[in-house]
Specification:
Layout: H1 2-35, H2 40-50, H3 64-99, E1 103-106, H4 110-118, E2 124-126, E3 137-140, H5 145-154, H6 156-159, E4 163-167, E5 181-184, H7 186-197, E6 205-209, H8 212-225, E7 235-239, H9 243-248, E8 259-262, E9 278-281, H10 289-300, E10 306-309, H11 315-320, E11 325-328, H12 331-334, H13 337-341, H14 343-360, H15 370-391, H16 396-413, E12 417-418, E13 428-429, H17 440-458
Parallel strand pairs: 1-2, 1-3, 3-4, 4-5, 6-7, 6-9, 7-8, 9-10, 10-11, 12-13
Helix pairs in contact: 1-2, 1-3, 7-8, 8-16, 14-15, 14-17, 15-16, 16-17
């Protein structure tokens, strides 16, 4: 039955394309015969063919059959032109794949559109539902995790050895062992970019209003990037639901000299926020959403600036025109190809690992487990802070101590604990101690590593 139906549909497609010609041939033959043309059939064939250009010869009566024929002929012509254009695009894409390092972007999200626009025109291809083979890298950026995972799973045999970047909001990238596969999320990109755009200069009391994916990533990146002085004392105050986050990260009390305070979703007085140096609205703990929450805080708190996560753009500014708010996290800001691929950070992480491997032995980058790979990535992210501190004249030994604090935090945030004996399977490490308690050789090694990283950056 299905086969018969497909044949029927195919027949209809053919009929509507050729029907205008035969309708015209019938009508025009009669017209030219009555007019006394010497070759009425030849003239009728010519006039019928011109219908596909939407043209009707002057003097020919506009009968209903002729109008129907012209309409069907125009539709046929348009469909043919579309197919020709698609074929031209296919040829252009084929040329890009053959001679350039092209990137195929799949997805219906705002982030997919922004990433596609940020790519060079000669190196970008917009993917549809089917796999385009031969690209240098693939970006899967559908609007929900399920569609991204389904697409990757459907084409796994081809994509497993390709450079693939997948936007996933609910899967941790540190669980992925395939070095060709990179996971990222809008929340993570927003958090990383936020601390780069608005870095800390001194110890601060920071309030997160709301939590969720954005708040979690802001806290995780803040703890690893906002390390500027061994004697600093940052306070991170969370006003929002963080129960799941606290279950996932069991060593949060090891962030000394900084502290984290979880206030839950309790009702609070706006006057409580007046003592903070920085307020980041990354969700709402009260009815009314982020606009209402931000506007009330702006009215109640005298801080010169309040930071508001606004993935759809400067929504608070658009509503209130307030010069005291700074919106961050829009697709336009965080979905450029440089931020998505994060190639400079990844290259620095590889170079750092290669330095350690040459000095102290170890396996190549491709053989590292995901935890160690992203330990190097975390260190590379922190280079942004180290460079600023070096410009201020901070000594190498102090920089090495700060890097050790970051290294410890990365392990603690992944639930490692101190032990005299190292056991990676049980997440135990003897170096999870203060910098001053490390051996002289370990301290010297850390200082040399910092020098190497900064020299590599200057090359």
């Amino acid at each position: 039955m299905k086969k018969i139906f497909r044949v029927f549909l195919s027949s209809i497609k053919v009929l509507y394309k050729i029907a205008p010609f035969f309708i015209g041939l019938f009508c025009y033959t009669s017209f030219y015969t009555e007019k006394g043309n010497l070759y009425p059939i030849v003239d009728a064939v010519y006039s019928s063919a011109k219908l596909y250009a939407g043209d009707i010869k002057d003097g020919i009566p506009l009968t209903i059959p002729i109008e129907i024929a012209r309409f069907l002929a125009s539709v046929t012509t348009i469909s043919i032109l579309v197919k020709v254009l698609n074929k031209i695009m296919d040829i252009a894409n084929w040329l890009k794949l053959q001679f350039m390092k092209s990137t195929v972007v799949y997805g219906d999200s705002d982030y997919a559109d922004c990433v596609f626009e940020s790519l060079g025109k000669s190196r970008r291809i917009r993917g549809g539902e089917e796999l385009i083979q031969g690209a240098s890298r693939y970006l899967l950026m559908f609007s929900d995790d399920t569609r991204n995972l389904k697409f990757y799973n459907k084409h796994y045999e081809y994509l497993k050895d390709r450079n693939v970047y997948i936007m996933l909001n609910n899967v941790s990238r540190q669980n992925i062992e395939n070095t060709k596969l990179t996971l990222f999320s809008a929340a993570e990109n927003s958090a990383r970019q936020y601390w780069r755009d608005y870095p800390v200069e001194k110890s601060e009391r920071i309030a997160f209003i709301g939590f969720g994916g954005v708040g979690e990533n802001l806290l995780l990146y803040g703890l690893q990037m906002n390390i500027i002085d061994p004697a600093q004392h940052f306070e991170y105050h969370i006003f929002g639901d963080a129960e799941e986050f606290r279950r996932e990260h069991t060593e949060l009390d090891k962030m000394a000299p900084d502290e984290i305070f979880f206030h839950g979703e309790r009702e609070y007085e706006y006057s409580e926020l007046s003592g903070f140096d920085r307020i980041i609205v990354c969700g709402s703990t009260r009815e009314g959403g982020v606009i209402a929450q931000a506007s009330k805080i702006l009215a109640a708190v005298s801080l010169p600036t309040i930071y508001i996560y606004a993935p759809k753009g400067d929504i608070v500014t658009n509503f209130f025109g307030n010069v005291r708010d700074v919106c961050f996290g829009s697709a336009k800001e965080t979905a450029s190809i440089d931020i998505i691929l994060n190639e400079k950070t990844m290259q620095a992480a590889r170079a750092q690992h290669e330095y350690y491997r040459q000095q102290y032995g170890g396996v190549p980058w491709e053989q590292l487990d995901s935890f160690k790979r992203y330990s190097n990535v975390s260190s590379s992210d922190y280079m942004f802070t180290l460079e600023r501190l070096m410009e201020k004249g901070v000594a190498f030994e102090t920089l090495a101590e700060l890097e050790h604090i970051r290294w410890c935090r990365y392990h603690y945030l992944n639930n490692w604990k101190y032990s005299k004996e190292r056991d990676d399977a049980k997440r135990l490490h003897p170096s999870l101690i203060p910098f001053s308690e490390l051996s002289g050789d370990e301290i010297k090694k850390d200082i040399e590593a910092i020098k190497s990283k900064l020299e590599e950056k200057d090359r």
